[in-house]
Amino acid sequence: MRILLLTGKGGVGKSTVASGTAALAAAAGHRTLLLSTDAAHSLGDAFGVEVGPEPTEVADRLFVQQVDAQLRFQQSWAEVQGYLLSVLDSAGVDRLAAEELTVLPGAEEVLALLELRLQVLSGAWDVVVVDCAPTAETLRLLALPEALGWYMQRVFPVQARVVKAFKPVLSRAAGVPMPGGSVFEAVERLHAELDEVCALLQGPDASVRLVLTPENVVVAEARRSWTTLSLYGYRVDGVVANRVFPHADADDWRAGWVDAQQQVLAEVEESFVGLPVWRSEYRPAEPVGVAALRDLASDVYAADDPLAVPAGDGPFRVTRSGDATVLRLRLPLVGRSDVDLARKHDELVVTVGAYRRVVTLPAGLVRLEVAGARVEDGELQVRFREARPSRAQGESA
Fold this sequence. Notes:
By secondary structure, the chain is an alpha/beta fold. It has helices at residues 14-27, 43-47, 69-90, 95-101, 107-122, 135-154, 156-174, 181-201, 216-231, 252-271, 290-301, 363-366, 391-396; strands spanning 2-7, 32-36, 56-59, 62-66, 127-131, 206-212, 236-244, 277-281, 316-321, 324-330, 339-344, 347-352, 355-360, 368-376, 379-386.
């Protein structure tokens, strides 16, 4: 199954490009689902039809779905929310305010990812195209499963054991109800499902496609997105430059816009070396409906296969050559001074700008020590070697 996520800065037309890509996939004979994880659903507007919380067929082999976040929230978070409400109620918090406080931050996007998992595992689709939220929200969302995983491995088991052992005492001392086993099970279930989503989206059949417009601010954000998505282990397979003014005889004002866009597009080609850069010309009318969206995608991808699986290894890999073991993490567009690296027991903490990833080292690297690190050709390379005995150990030997 092919999974393709499209994201970009708000307003660049990612929903239109995602819709066109899905329509083109269906026209090629693939049973295709177009799923929106953006809270501001617009897929119904793009196709000019009513779209509901279940897959809606809008053309032969083409289905569109806008997730009902409230329904999924009740199914996945109700047990935890019920406990939190009891705690706030015992503290005298107004019921209406308590309900607002117990809503999971980013719940709509998170639960849309859980719906994506269900659809992928259903086996009903050949292709799933995801119309993601704007890049900032998408980056936070895609970092969530790994961050929650760290909490579940390091902190959650201790909390569960403490509460189980001291629940009667804690309840009397704190004056609030302690969580029962079903609450912990609900959190564990949510973590397991998000972890599975992460594995699916980092797999070899999944990739992210960036949509941008030829504007300096938009391109700068797309560059950062490529770096950050790679940091978290997601493949970026291409860039779509949308709303490009066509070359034509025009007055000075329009000619100035064309020239300005061409300068930015030249920077896009230089910035995203190694990735295909497709262009979508500004059209005389907004593409609405299956046929118009399919035609747009046909022009964008031309002779290329929009569903081609990215070649090569993923952003994260470990290689061995002789005595050297190297952990490699693709970090395009960064230099050594942009990366902060720290080793903490069995974890490697990699920080790039405002984003940080805690990498749990493979078992084969845990017993080794870091021998050095460098950034070369857009890749962080961390070298490991056998731990050397301390001087005291050497003398006693």
